[in-house]
Every structure is written in C-alpha cells, then in structure tokens.
C-alpha cells in the first residue's frame, strides 16, 4: 500500500512517525527503539509496526522521504529565477546527507542501495539537479565541463568527506565542508 492509498489520518500518522524517526536517528542514533519513536510521535507502537514492520523498513522510508523532500525543494527552486539555485539545492542535499548519515550507513550495511530501492525518487532528484545545472550553465555560474552525473558523484563524495571529518553532527562544520566542495563547481574568472 502506498501513501496515496492510506486514509488521511493514517497518512498523517505515518508522516509524523517519519519526521520523528528522522529527528531521533539524527540526534540519538539508530539504537532508539521503535516503541520510543512511537511514543515521541504521539502514536501507538502498533501504528509504527503496522507501517514499518522492521527497523530497516523505517530506515529505508526515512531515506526515501528525505529524497522526496529534496525533490520538492528542487521543484520549488526551479520555479525561481535564481541562476545559482543549483548551489542551494546541492547545499541542502549535503546537509540532508550529513543529518542522515547514520541511516544511510545502516542501509549500506543492510545492502540497500537507494538508487535500486527507490529508483523513481532517485531519478526525480537527479532530474531536478540536471534542470538546475542546465540553468546554471546558461547563466555562467557553474563550470561548463561538469555533468549531472559528476555533480551527483560530488554530492556522494561530500557525504564521505563530511563523515570522514566527523562533521555529520556539526551543522556549521558540515556546511563549511560543503561550501569548500561546492566552490570547486563554481565558474571562476581567470
């Protein structure tokens, strides 16, 4: 059953569980129990277990939800006339990756690849990045030799850099690393 098939109250409960889980995973780690997530979300344990029968299912749902939120942010940025909106989206993607590093590590350990587990969401995000990259190319604010595949690889590399610097729980430090990385994409006058 997908989100659209859920009753409105069930959909709200599911969204509340996802938001709560994401916040708790980011702040307290993956050891938090499903029952504690339910309590903090203001729903019964059965509600959490009905939507997410395993913790891995919840990890995956949190990660997919984050991708969908980024897609929505990309769509909103597409509606602006900001030629550098690409950098806004990429910064947000890197921040999201840093905030959800534990979830992504757990998915990797469980041999989940988000591109395979949620191909539509991943493709939608890549499409948003491609659209904003094209606009940035036309405006001359990004290097002309960079492709969308390279940009997506750079974002994935940024997650590793942020994690390597132990900055995934320090927003200021992870934003600084992201800024350094993104600066390499900017077109600099010679």
UniProtKB/TrEMBL annotation:
GO terms for molecular function: DNA-binding transcription factor activity; transcription cis-regulatory region binding. It comes from the Bacteria. The keyword Transcription regulation applies. It comes from Streptosporangium canum. PANTHER family: HTH-TYPE TRANSCRIPTIONAL REGULATOR BETI, HTH-TYPE TRANSCRIPTIONAL REGULATOR RUTR. Residues 33-52 bind DNA. It holds the Pfam family TetR_C_43. This is Transcriptional regulator, TetR family. Residues 11-70 form the HTH tetR-type domain. InterPro entries: DNA-bd_HTH_TetR-type_CS, Homeodomain-like_sf, HTH-type_TetR-like_transc_reg, HTH_TetR, Tet_transcr_reg_TetR-rel_C_sf, TetR_SbtR-like_C. Coiled coil: none annotated. Keywords: DNA-binding, Transcription, Transcription regulation.
């Amino acid at each position: 059953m997908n989100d659209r098939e859920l009753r409105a109250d069930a959909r709200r409960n599911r969204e509340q569980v996802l938001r709560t889980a994401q916040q708790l995973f980011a702040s307290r780690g993956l050891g938090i129990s499903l029952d504690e997530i339910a309590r903090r979300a203001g729903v019964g344990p059965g509600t959490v277990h009905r939507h997410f029968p395993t913790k891995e299912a919840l990890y995956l749902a949190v990660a997919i939800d984050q991708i969908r939120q980024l897609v929505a942010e990309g769509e909103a940025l597409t509606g602006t006339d900001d030629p550098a909106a690409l950098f806004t989206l990429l910064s947000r993607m890197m921040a999201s990756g840093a905030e959800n590093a534990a979830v992504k590590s757990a998915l990797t350990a469980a041999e989940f690849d988000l591109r395979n587990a949620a191909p539509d969401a991943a493709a939608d995000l890549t499409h948003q990045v491609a659209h904003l990259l094209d606009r940035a190319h036309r405006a001359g604010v990004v290097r002309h030799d960079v492709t969308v595949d390279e940009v997506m690889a750079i974002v994935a590399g940024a997650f590793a850099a942020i994690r390597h610097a132990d900055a995934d729980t320090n927003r200021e430090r992870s934003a600084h690393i992201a800024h350094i990385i993104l600066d390499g994409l900017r077109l600099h006058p010679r």
